[in-house]
Write a sequence for this structure.
């Protein structure tokens, strides 16, 4: 019965999200020049060599490509690749390789063709399928639930959070609402309906609140503007200028931390439940102490994982820091917002994880010790 109620609730919730939101309309594109994209296959490499672009070594190719879709399907075009920009050796194309062609039609009727990118969706689809099969084989029913949860998370972000931010709503408020929708649906889908899951869910919400509070204080006191990257700065131009960039930066911290928070709270809640099941004589204090001991080990690895995730996502920035081409003092580089942004993200996310351990341990230890004393063995 609970599963039917949960399924009905999830369906209703997603229906509300999909029907109540719509993507904000971007600026109308200029009617000219017109740009179209088509898939193509490299038929022949007529010429290939090395050249210099901006005093750097570069490669170029003259290609014959056959379009595999569109009104000019099966027609062959000759395209220059790499002479107008710097191209590395790993960007050289091979015969038989699938690519994306950009066709530009100018007002005077002139048409140009250029190589836009590798075509890689077929490969990505194969690896996604392998991943989903592995999740189901290893995780069983819970693997299926976690996969559905992942799809729901993406749907909430793409259909709810981003559109409302584009409409000018407060990014932090919208992200918190979206995060609540995500954890309310995905947690029960992945782990089932139980007291353990509910405790984990409550603990995640509390921890998320403190994470947002800490991150807000850190951003305000360190004068972070949120303009530490080119993408954020570009949002200040045109119709997206209504977006609160600082709030957007804070929203990114919340979303990045959410998954790790849920992982910790779910594991801790289950650990304390199993401890009490193994030894029903454990008191609240004993459960809390033993649970906290396990949580410390978990938090040590997760904080390191979170830091590595942040560093990996901004690896080019850290390489620039070490390279220091301008020979600036390191304190000046670290003080720069590009670096400061990453530091604030790491500190705020890690603080949320640290706080989540005592929060969920306290709630779970109290609840399970109390329930068992009263004779309830319900999960």
């Amino acid at each position: 019965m609970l599963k039917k109620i949960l399924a009905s609730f999830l369906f209703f919730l997603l229906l509300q999200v999909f029907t109540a939101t719509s993507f904000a309309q971007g600026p109308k594109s200029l009617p000219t020049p017109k740009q179209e994209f088509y898939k193509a296959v490299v038929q022949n490499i007529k010429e290939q060599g090395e050249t210099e672009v901006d005093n750097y070594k570069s490669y170029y190719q003259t290609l014959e490509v056959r379009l595999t879709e569109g009104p000019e399907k099966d027609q062959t075009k000759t395209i220059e690749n790499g002479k107008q920009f710097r191209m590395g050796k790993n960007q050289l194309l091979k015969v038989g390789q699938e690519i994306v062609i950009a066709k530009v039609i100018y007002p005077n009727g002139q048409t140009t063709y250029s190589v836009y990118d590798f075509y890689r969706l077929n490969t990505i689809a194969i690896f996604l399928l392998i991943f989903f099969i592995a999740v189901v084989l290893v995780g069983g029913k819970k693997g299926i639930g976690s996969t559905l949860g992942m799809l729901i998370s993406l749907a909430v972000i793409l259909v709810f959070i981003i559109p409302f931010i584009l409409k000018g709503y407060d990014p932090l408020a919208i992200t918190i609402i979206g995060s609540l929708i995500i954890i309310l649906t995905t947690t029960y889908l992945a782990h089932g309906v139980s007291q353990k899951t509910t405790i984990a869910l409550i603990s995640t919400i509390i921890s998320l609140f403190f994470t947002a509070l800490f991150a807000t204080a850190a951003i305000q006191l360190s004068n972070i503007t949120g303009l530490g990257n080119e993408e954020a700065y570009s949002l200040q131009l045109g119709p997206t200028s209504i977006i609160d960039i600082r709030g957007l930066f804070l929203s990114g911290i919340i979303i990045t931390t959410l998954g790790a928070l849920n992982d910790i709270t779910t594991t801790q809640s289950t650990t304390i439940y199993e401890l009490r099941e193994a030894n029903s004589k454990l008191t609240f204090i004993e459960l809390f102490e033993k649970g906290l001991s396990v949580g410390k080990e978990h938090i040590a690895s997760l904080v390191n994982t979170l830091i590595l995730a942040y560093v990996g996502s901004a690896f080019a920035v850290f390489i620039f820091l070490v390279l220091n081409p301008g020979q600036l003092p390191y304190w000046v580089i670290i003080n720069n917002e590009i670096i400061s942004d990453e530091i604030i993200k790491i500190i705020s996310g890690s603080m949320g994880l640290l706080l989540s351990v005592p929060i969920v341990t306290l709630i779970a230890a109290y609840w399970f010790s109390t329930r068992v004393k009263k004779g309830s063995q319900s999960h």
Notes: Confidence is low (pLDDT under 50) at residues 1-30, 372-379. The two ends are 16 Å apart (CA to CA). The first strand starts at residue 34 and ends at 53.
